[in-house]
Amino acid sequence: MTGSRLTELYRIPTSGARAVEPFELDGRSFLAIPQLAMDVPGAPAHMNGGDSNTDLLILRADASGYQEHQRLPVPGGEDAEFFRIGDRAFLAAASIRSGSGPYNFAPEQRIFSWDGDGFVPFQSVPGFAGKQWKHIPIGERHFLGLAQGVSLPGTEADNLPSRLYEWDGERFAPFQDISSQWAYNWHPFTLGDQHFLAHADNVAPSMLFRWDGDTFVEYQELADRHCRAFADFTADGEHYLLVARLQSESELLRWDGERFVRHQKLDNPGARELAVIHGERGLYVLRVNFIRGTPDAPTSALTSQLYRWESGALHVVEEFPTTGGTDVAVFADPAGDTLIGISNSLSPDIRFAADTRIYRFTG
């Protein structure tokens, strides 16, 4: 569209893509894309169906786009988190399930390490319906959070809380459990010298935790339910926290010096992920929408939003198409241009084959 701030550069064929994780290694640029499921020929379309014996894609950037570098066995892939500890590089991958029905919601949650040519298995931990890994560094300590769980009939006895691990110099050891029922996401951030950790849950209250020097302690409720993700930013001398909610309106919260208070509602449900962009002409927020409706009758072909911060609030300045949008990542190409990666997990007819798209941002 004329005057658009988002220019599409590449489409990457993916199947049920749930995240897009950019990273650099040895002077090369990569993307990691976990995939939830593949379409089963002849099977009816359903967003919770499909064959989840899938691979996580590792793609390497070149002059023509992105080429496959490696596949990792990550069934029912939901998330990939790249991080470093010292001179070591890791990729943690979350799996919600395996199989093609009935599904196993307790696949191992896998952590890989880089050996110079590719990722190799490093450690696996037990999990249940894993949704997201997040690296949380505090001083010299390194924590790794697994958001997990699903609250469905028949899963009550097997469900697990979200879990924080800590690097002990050789491996990631269990550190702290966080109460949850159907967790999706973590978001660490700092305010002054305080370290906070937001935890998103679909059916239980989503909580903000504060690091007290020994452990993460509950600080404030952020949303009663339906929460999927967070993002934070500072504007006009104030700190803000965005709360993305799927089946309710998303909200922008403002720090009042002691806690976060409601500042602005963002119209319409459907939000799945958020990202903040510090552009040449101001501060922007990208909101990626997943579905509207129910899992049995979803609408996946939606418009997602680009907001700009103006006069103390977020205002929509552009919309762009997504189909079952699940993630958004902001990164730079070798020339220094700002790129946006958006994973789409469903086609308009609720099939899993849907392209991940890469855009150039100007704004």
Describe it.
The protein is mainly beta and 363 residues long. It is 0% helix and 60% strand. The chain has strands at residues 6-12, 21-25, 28-33, 55-62, 65-73, 77-85, 88-95, 109-114, 119-125, 132-138, 141-147, 162-167, 172-178, 183-191, 194-201, 206-211, 216-223, 227-235, 238-245, 250-255, 260-266, 271-279, 282-289, 292-294, 297-299, 301-310, 313-323, 325-332, 338-344, 356-361. A hairpin with a 2-residue loop joins strand 18 (227-235) and strand 19.
Write a concise keyword list for the protein shown above.
363 residues, mainly beta, four-stranded antiparallel beta sheet
Any low-confidence stretches, pLDDT <50, length ≥5?
A: none
| Mean pLDDT level | 97
End-to-end CA span: 15 Å
- How helical, in percent, are the residues? under 10%
Strand order of the largest sheet: 1-30-29-28
How many strands in all? 30
Strand content bin: over 45%
Report Rg: 19 Å
Order of helices and strands: EEEEEEEEEEEEEEEEEEEEEEEEEEEEEE
Q: Label the overall shape.
A: globular
Sheet bearing the most strands, described?
4 strands, antiparallel
Provide the structure class.
mainly beta
Count the DSSP helices: 0
